Amino acid sequence: MSSPTLDLDAVDLSDRRFWGAPPEQRHAVYDQLRRERPFAFFAEPVVPYIEPGPGYHAVTRYADVEAISCQPALFSSGAGAVSIADMPPDLNEFYGSLISMDDPRHGKIRRIVAKAFTPRVLEKLVGNVQAVADDVVARARRTAEDGDGTIDVVADLAAPIPLRVICDMMGVPEGDRALVLRQSNVILSGGDPELVEDEEQMVTAFLKAGEELAGLMARLAAERHAHPADDLTTALVTTEVDGERLTHQEIASFFILLLVAGNETTRNAISQGVLALSEHPAERERWAADPGLTRTAVEEIVRWTSPITWMRRTATQDVELSGQSFPAGSKFLLFYGAANRDPAVFADPHRFDLSRDPNPHVGFGSRGPHFCLGAHLARREIGVAFRAFADQLPDLEVTGPPARLESSFVNGLKRLPARLTGVR
Fold first, then answer.
1. Is residue 284 in a domain?
2. Which of 136, 148, 286, 304 has its CA 20 to 30 A from that of 70?
3. Is residue 1 part of a domain?
4. 3 in a domain, yes or no?
């Protein structure tokens, strides 16, 4: 992909409309920023009722993303990892959970959560993914057969698989799952006007969605205290590390994290993976003919789509990066999609190559204490989903452009129209 020369002074990564543009436009900006302004500075987006912050540096080179991620003592997550604006500490931790913590608290909470993810729990989860994917695919085909042959890749395929896996994992009752999907969409909307109608009420909508999910998990945690079950919620309420257990609020916060890291990211990797395969039919045919490509194909889909656009870090003291000095308190947004197309690391980075190997992408975060805890499960879900599509939906055809989420944080699709050509 050639990168035209752009007027970088006219680029504003804080403008939500930028994130609704096609990926090739965003990547053209990333390419030029990497070459000319690898720490470009931007004013923070205006958020109703939140005091404007000092601005942030956009980190677009792979080496700089890795350097910041590997030095948590110098680049804090605890000041806020999922919000550009400085949020009140209690809200910051509630919506960010482990992602917005530093050691020693981060280490203790992560050890409790990791201990709950026992090999038996993980094995059960991995085994459940195939059954979920098969059922979701069968339902999608029935939807097409009962209608006009069309489906929405997001609503009918990509969204149900990770949502059901996480809700099964946590033991969320069937009757509560629509609420979980609805409120997680609000939290991760990035203020998209289709999901949050009144921008002035954006913060209120986020808070209300968090309260709804917290209430659900508080109820579920109390039920598991009284009546343990074979699910992750039971493991989380009963697991101790150094005599400490998670509080109900910490469990609720971790549940929101699961919805971000385990639901939305996998959902968007799947939906945008379907789109990428439709745009690269030779790669789709190659994978369909060779299931042995699944391992590298999954990694390439995550690199290509980079479902989480950025995480924030804040300098705890005066620091130097790649010969440039920054004062304490400087904010950095680590743009994973930009790092995943850095030609210093990836040969022909704008080529979609399902056999790319090695593929040291940062789609699950870079090296360091905040690398995604659920990366193994996400890889399994993506791999199983696409093999199910290849085997059971070989006639799946994308029929129009996607509706993109106008969010700088989540690189997501709201809708992707498709049809099953063998139905009608």
1. yes
2. 304
3. no
4. no
Tell me whether the omega of the peptide bond preceding residue 291 falls within 30 degrees of 0, making it cis: no
Give the count of domains, the chain: 1
What's the farthest any 2 CA atoms get from each other in the chain? 64
Instruction: Strand 39-42: give its sheet, edge to edge.
Output: 39-42, 56-59, 331-335, 310-315, 75-76
Handedness of CA 187, 99, 39, 6 (dihedral sign): negative
CA dist 144 to 134, 152, 372, Å?
16, 10, 35
Bridge-based pairing of strands 396-398 and 331-335 is unpaired
Burial class (CB in 10 A: 0-12, 13-18, 19+), 405: buried
Asked whether residue 161 is assigned to any structural domain, the reply reads yes
- Return all residues near 211 (Cβ < 8 A) that are at least 6 apart: none
Read off the DSSP letter of residue 61: -
Q: Identify whether 402 is preceded by a cis peptide bond (ω within 30 of 0).
A: no
Beta-carbon contacts of 127 under 8 Å, excluding residues fewer than 6 positions away, are none
Instruction: Determine the residue type at 130.
Output: Q
Q: How many CB atoms lie within 10 A of CB 46?
A: 10
Domain that holds residue 249: 8-420
Residue 237, token pair as written in the block: 């309420």
Q: Are 111 and 241 in contact (CB under 8 A)?
A: yes
How far, in Å, are 221, 342, 359, 384 from residue 126 at the CA level?
Answer: 23, 32, 23, 10
For the chain, 424 residues long, the average pLDDT of each consecutive 10-residue run is: 74 92 94 97 87 94 97 93 83 70 81 73 78 96 96 96 89 90 74 62 75 88 91 85 79 77 85 98 96 97 96 97 97 98 98 98 87 83 96 97 91 95 79
What whole-number distance in Å separates Cα of residue 365 and Cα of residue 261?
Answer: 11
- Smallest CA-to-CA distance from 142 within 420, 402, 400 is with 420
Supply the pLDDT for residue 1: 46
Whichever domain contains 157, its CATH number is: 1.10.630.10
Burial (CB count within 10 angstroms: exposed 0-12, middle 13-18, buried 19+), residue 396:
buried
Q: Which two tokens stand for residue 240?
A: 């101790």
Q: Choose among 261, 253, 269, 298: nearest CA to 95.
A: 253
The per-residue pLDDT for 182 is 84
Scored b (16 or more CB within 10 A) or e, 268-292 reads bbbbbbbbbbbebeebbeebbeeee
Pick from 21, 78, 145: which is nearest to 314 by CA? 78
